[in-house]
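#lab-general

N.A. 3:47 PM
ok so I finally got the sequence cleaned up, no stray characters, all 508 residues accounted for. can someone with queue access submit it? mine expired

B.Y. 3:52 PM
send it over

N.A. 3:53 PM
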Amino acid sequence: MPTHTAIPAKAFDVVIAGGGSAGAVLARRLSENPNRTVLLLEAGPAYAPDAYPDVIANANRVGGDAMHDWGYRTQDHLGLGHDVRAIRGKVLGGSSGVNAAVAMRARASDFARWSARGLDGWSWDEVFPIFKALENTPTGDDAWRGRSGPLPIRQRSMEEITPSMRAFVLASEAAGLSRITDFNGAEQDGVSPYPLNVVDGRRINTGMAYLTEEVRARTNLAIVGGAEVDAVLFDGRRARGLRLAGGEMVEAGRVILSAGAFGSPAILMRSGIGPAAHLRDLDIPVLQDAPVGERLKEHPFYYNVYALKREARSMDPVAGAIIWTRSSEAAADELDLHVSGTHIFDPAQSPTGGAIVLACSVTLPKSVGSVRLASRDPRAMPLIRYNFFEDPSDLRRMMEAVRLSRRIGRTAPFGDVVEAEMFPGPDVRDDDALRRAVVLAVDGYAHPTSSVPMGGPDDPRAVVDGSGAVRGVVGLNVVDASIMPDIVSAPTNVTTIMVAEAISPRLV
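B.Y. 4:20 PM
back already:
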C-alpha cells in the first residue's frame, strides 16, 4: 500500500514538491541532518520500497499505465502534423519508475557546454566524482565506476540479451562501429549492451534506491502521496510554503520544486514567476518576470522496426543494446546520435509474433520547445511544444541515424534474423519518402529538460542560478531536469540524479 496519506499539521524546514528522480534524492540527503524537518510531496502513489506494482517494478514494462502517468500530450500538430505523447511518471520515483532504466552518464563535452554559459561548479572534473559516488556497480574499471552508492547500475552482457539483440551488436561492428565495454567508462563512440539500473529484472527507481525503509523511518522525514501542488506561497518575495491543488496549505522555511520539466515550470507560472505577458493573459499577478518554459529541449525519436524470424523472436529482456556515435555535423568530441535497440513493441503487431526496434535519436537537438499554462487550473495539462525539426539540422542528422539503422538492418548477422522491415517499410526507398516517414511518426525519447534553466549571473535567459535558486525571490529552489541549461547527449535520468546529489549539500 502507498505510505502516508495525510499532510502533517505542522511547519517544516523544507518542503519538496515532487518525489521523482531528483526529489527522492533530496529527501534522503536533506533529512540526513536530524535537526532538519523535511516533507516530500508526491502527486502519485507513494509505495513502500518493496510494494511497487508490477507495472513499475518490472523492467520489461516500460511507460507505466494510466494510474502512474500524467497523461500529457504535446501541441505539435501544427508543425509535425501530430501531437506527441509526453510520458512522465506519476509515482514516488517519478519517471525513474516508468523509464527503460538506461543508466548512462552525460559526457564531458555536455558539461563543457553548461560551463560555457557562465556556470560555476558544473565542469566534468567537478561532476565526475558525484557520478561515481551515487552508483554501485560490481564491474568496470575502478577509475570510472562507483562501488558503494545508492543506485545499482549493472552492465548487461551479450549473454543476457536476446539473440536478435546480439545480432544487432555484431552487425553494428560489421558496419564499422567499435565495441564499447562500458559507456560509463573512458570511451563511448560505438555499440554495446546497455548499462541499466535493473537488478534481477527489477527496475530500481529512486523511490526504492534512495528512500529505503531505513530512510523512511527517520522521524524528521514525512512522505505524502496523492499530493498535487498548485503554487508556491509567498510573504513578499520570500517563499513560505505551498498550496496544494485541493486547497491545503503547507508552511516551510525553504521550498524546493522537483516536479520535472513540465511540473516545475507550471508551478512557477501559477505562482507568478514566468513570462509576464503570458501570466497577465491568464490573470495571474506577476511576481517575477522570468523566461520560464522558453528553452524546453527533448530528444526526437524515430522507430525503425523489424519483424523477427520465428526462430529468433525472443523479446525478453526488452532492453538490449545501443549505438552512441556522431553525425557528420557533430562538433569536436560530441556524440549526437543514438540507435537504441529494444523490444518495446507489441508482438501482436508483428506478422511473426516477434519484433525488434532500432530507435533513432538526435541527442543534441538544436530545436527549442516551450511549456505554457493552458489555464490557472492546477489540474489542467500544460501546453507543451517540442518543435521537433524546427532547426533543419535536427532532421538532417535524424536522417543520418535512420540510414545507419537501416544499413545495420541489412547487415549480417542482424539481417539473417530479420523477416522484414515493418517501419518505415520496404516501400520507403528514397530520401524524400524517408523524410516524410520520419516527420510523420517522430516521437519523444521521454527526456525533457531545460524549461527552468540554470545560468551564470550574466545570462538573461536563465531562471535559476547554479544551485537552482530562483532569481528574484528568496527561499525557493528548483532541482530536477528542468534546470539543465541544455539537454545532454545521453538518457537524462542518471544526470538528473547527479544534479540533485550535487545541489543537496548547498541547500543549508
